[in-house]
Amino acid sequence: MDIKILGTGCANCDSLEKATQAAVSELAIDAQFEKVTDPGEIASWGVMSTPALVVDDEVVLSGRVPSQDEVAALLADR
């Protein structure tokens, strides 16, 4: 699974990354993480509000920090 965290490095972006890593660990998913901080690249994904979560080249969440359980549910559906 290819996971991207889109955000400029704010506290919310860090929280999303931590929740996502915890969910991946909980589900025992083999995943590669990438942090995207370039505003131009973030905009190219059509994201106007960060943080955002991209899973296998699909934006699955943006503009808020979900709980670890919510991230796990998003990942389990893949």
Describe the protein's architecture and organization.
The protein has 78 residues and is of the alpha+beta class. It has one domain: Glutaredoxin (3-Layer(aba) Sandwich), CATH 3.40.30.10. The chain has helices at 11-27, 39-44, 68-76; strands at residues 2-6, 32-36, 52-55, 58-62. It has a four-stranded mixed sheet with strand order 2-1-3-4.
Topology:
Elements lengths: L1 E5 L4 H17 L4 E5 L2 H6 L7 E4 L2 E5 L5 H9 L2
Parallel strand pairs: 1-2
Antiparallel strand pairs: 1-3, 3-4
Q: What is the rounded Rg?
A: 11 Å
CATH C-level? Alpha Beta
Mean pLDDT value: 95
Q: Domain count, please report it.
A: 1
Spatially, the strands of the biggest sheet line up as: 2-1-3-4
Number of helices: 3
Encode the helix/strand succession as letters: EHEHEEH
Give me the count of strands: 4
Briefly note the CATH topology name.
Answer: Glutaredoxin
Shape from CA axes? globular
Strand content: 15-25%
Helix content: 40-55%
Going by helix content, strand content and strand pairing, the class is alpha+beta
Largest sheet: 4 strands, mixed
Short structural description:
By secondary structure, the chain is an alpha+beta fold. It has 3 helices and 4 strands; from the N terminus they run βαβαββα.
Which key terms come to mind for this protein?
single chain; 41% helix; alpha+beta; 78 residues; four-stranded mixed sheet; Glutaredoxin
